[in-house]
Structures are given as structure tokens and as C-alpha cells.
Amino acid sequence: MHDQEMTGMNFKSMESEKHLNEVTVLPENVYHSYLGEYFLGQTDLISFGGGFNGWGGLVNPADSNVNIFLNAYTISNYSNEPLTTEAWIGSILPGNGKTSPHVAAGNQALNPPPIPKIDIKSASFLSGKPSRGTNAFVRRVEPITTLTKHDFQGMFIIPPGSSISLFFLSPGKRQAHARVAFGWWEEKA
Fold it and tell me: Which of 15, 20, 36, 95 is least surrounded by Cβ atoms within 10 Å, i.e. has the fewest?
């Protein structure tokens, strides 16, 4: 009987000390957007064909002091031909690449909106291919479609001085046009 009384008293004592805390669970990309660390953007139109290639990618400058955490990418194929795209990580890309102005912070409620430290770049009509780095995967994109891959939740982490790019192989004699878009967040390296 004594044990039951003690158990009952302890339970009552614990019950009166119980405090409820509200907990909000956010997906990681939403959390980073809230912090002003999530960005999205797209390349200019990428043109290739007739034996020439093209690419679009996230390029992390050596002096950025941030790591890129890839969350999503899309490939829009504006052509009547299926496209083959190779994903390259940490490669040396042919051509200089043009920096895209089409970039925005996910959190537009912050004033001023944050500015990413990395660049979205693209290049068209190149004869070379990426060198070094890793050809991580290949995607086939059907004509007049947009392929969307998302919810990577930062699986691909790109350090300063590196990149992740989608490299378009020439579809033959015909000219093709595509655009690449990315969603990512940045954290201090």
C-alpha cells in the first residue's frame, strides 16, 4: 500500500509540474528560407546542337566562404528533340559561362532581401566537355517538357571553389534550347 501511495503522489507531483511547449517542425528548406539562406534562380536560355554542347550550373567562387546545399533543379527542354544531360560535380567547365541575373532570395519578407554568394552560370555552343570532377548522373529530358527533381534536402554539398552543373550533349545536327533552374541554401563554410 505504501508503494501505491508513493506512486500516486509522485504522479500527482509530476502532473502539476508538467509544462507544455509549442514545437513547430519545418522542412529544412523552409527553415533556411526563413533565415534568408535559401535562393532560387535560373539560367539564361542555353543553346546547343550541330556538334556543340552547352551547360548551366551553380558555381561557388573560391572566396564565397559558404557551402551550397542543393535542394532542387529543373531542366526545361524547349526543343522537339529529347535531350541528354550529364550532371557534373567539381568539374572544370568549358567556356567562361555567363552569370545569370535571374536569382532571388526565397524569403522576400526580409528587407533588403539577401543576396546569394554563388553564381548561376551558363554557356552555349561549346566544343569541349567538362574535365576532372565527377559525372554523377545522367538525365534524359523528353521534348517540350520540364523535368523537376526536388527535395534533395542538401544531399549535394558544394564547397567554395567548386560547382554542380548540368551539361547538355549535342542532339545531333539540329539546334536545341534549354533552361536550368536551381533551389539551394547557403551556410558558412
Answer: 20
